[in-house]
Amino acid sequence: MECATGLIRHSPVRPFMRTARIARIVPLLLVLAACTRPVATAPVPATSTRAATPPVPRVPPVDALVPAAPLTVGLDPELPARLDSIVRVGLEQGAAPGAALAVGRFGRLVHLKGYGAIDYAAGAPTVDPTTIYDLASLTKVAATTTAAMILEEEGKLDLSRTVQSYLPEFDAPDKAGITVRMLLTHRGGLEAFAPLWKESHGRAEYLTQINARPLKNLPGTQVVYSDWDFVLMGLIVERIAGTTLDAFTAARVFGPLGMSSTRFTPDTTDAALMRRVTFTALDTLRGQLHGAVHDPNAWALGGVSGHAGLFGSARDLAVFVQMLLNGGTYAGTRIVKPTTIARWTASQDPISSRALGWDTPSAVSSAGRYFSPRSFGHTGYTGTSMWVDPERGLFVVLLTNRVNSRGEATRHVQLRRDVADAVQSSIRDAPLVDWEARR
User: Which of 224, 234, 354, 435 is paired with 186 by a 20 to 30 Å CA distance?
Assistant: First the structure.
């Protein structure tokens, strides 16, 4: 006998239960139990008598992503069809004109697909896994944080040192105590945002303005997600490295990983390239944005900033997050050490979800209900996101241009959660824990 979730497994009925009434009730209860997957709200103790889950598939380790069927890594074979339905419904309900999705587990790429088009205009090219999106704040982790990890490993960056020790111009008395660690955990005391782009352009002017502007709160006391934290981090990376952030990350991260679609400032004169780049806002000052960074402060900084400006594809970001799951290596190339990844991606205090540069799941997170507390990820204003669950060897990359010629959609928020929950719910070899309920 079968139900929607699979085969029903009958348990023997004890002799003392053989009454006519029980004979009618027990089979019904068994059917209901078989058709309902339990959701744990707490980790199952090692001594639990819960029925054993299927063993983790024995798949050989790989050092680079390889395509594979979901079932080979313990995922429901119906997952791709389920994801197709979720994404298409989200797009139909206005989340974005298109989306690109990458899902992997244990080094196997089980889903890599594009949906919709790069713009709402008739005849716009369709999205595929190499379609290039404005990654917005994913820049903070894929570029700036990774660069900072590399420099720390080389002994060139000390998180306990003050920002002023790296950027002497940042010398306002009220900011003297701000450390690099405070920037990375958004505890610098700086305001979240200001339209400096209206009056200021270039690194020197931005550094002067950020230095002069009043603090939001006392440094180190509160978490305020601030773009200025990562504008400064980008400047610190550049000052230490002696080169620009885009040049450093191209040479030390994206180039070695083969992330050929990932870059700052795409060449808008390259027609073939631009057919792969999604459209974003219809800006009142700059017109229709296509290959130009959406964030106006990043634009005023020349398109290269520590907080925004990076463009990339789902295919490339799948490689990037798999490198992190591999402990810092990919296809024989080491970017950072495993211990560095573990330390930088862990939440830094009990009252905040912030790691070093990265974020971790929090209440009503874009990671959904089931990503473990050890998970890490980030989102971007334009509609981009990526989440990694090391406990389950799992990643989900979802890129959309929810900022587009029709305005700024909000349906992408639920789309992220629906995709994340579908992927985690498809795992057959581990209990499904509702971590969000515990948070």
Answer: 435
